[in-house]
Amino acid sequence: MKKIVLLFAIIAIGTSSFAQDVKYGIKGGLNLANFSGDDMKGDSKADIYFGGFMRMTLTEWLDFQPELVYSRQGSSNDSEGIDAKFKTNFLNIPLLMRAKMIGSDKLYAIAGPQIGIHLSSEYEEDGDTADLDKAMSVLDFSVALGLQYDLNKQFSIEARYNFGLTKIFDNDYYEIDAKNSVFQIGIAASF
């Protein structure tokens, strides 16, 4: 984990030397998380995400925006009399490009890769919980796509979809085809 945080810092510092303008900010909002893949089907689980970002202006229409985001994800299943929740916690590091949409000074498309560091996981069914930390992959790779609208110079709202590229379970424990699938809607404040 120290190596990943160091890599994040090197990318941010290296890119900021080319940037014309640098802003910092905080963000947070609602996750609607589920799993994609052949082996796990469930219902979306609502939870939260929050974190910080650095936005570096590269050109008048393009920004680089690395982030550090705590995200509560997972899935739920409320069928056939079973109330089950799969809860996962990640520290996500999106490395996003933010491009101004043609014809608008306030609407931006955002896209880029995301590295997720698994923090903890548990399975809860009818009040009983089981720790699944050892069964999870340490890293999760995904792609983020979305839109961001600047309300003014300080506040913006965004909608983003993160779709997982790698299996979240460690194959040494479970050979299950399940990837993260997370829709996010939230607000950001820059300063």
UniProtKB/TrEMBL annotation:
Pfam families: OMP_b-brl_2. Residues 18-170 form the Outer membrane protein beta-barrel domain. It comes from the Bacteria. The keyword Transcription does not apply. Gene3D superfamilies: 2.40.160.20. SUPFAM superfamilies: OMPA-like (SSF56925). Keywords: Signal. Residues 1-19 form the signal peptide. This is Outer membrane beta-barrel protein. The lineage of its organism: Bacteria, Pseudomonadati, Bacteroidota, Bacteroidia, Marinilabiliales.
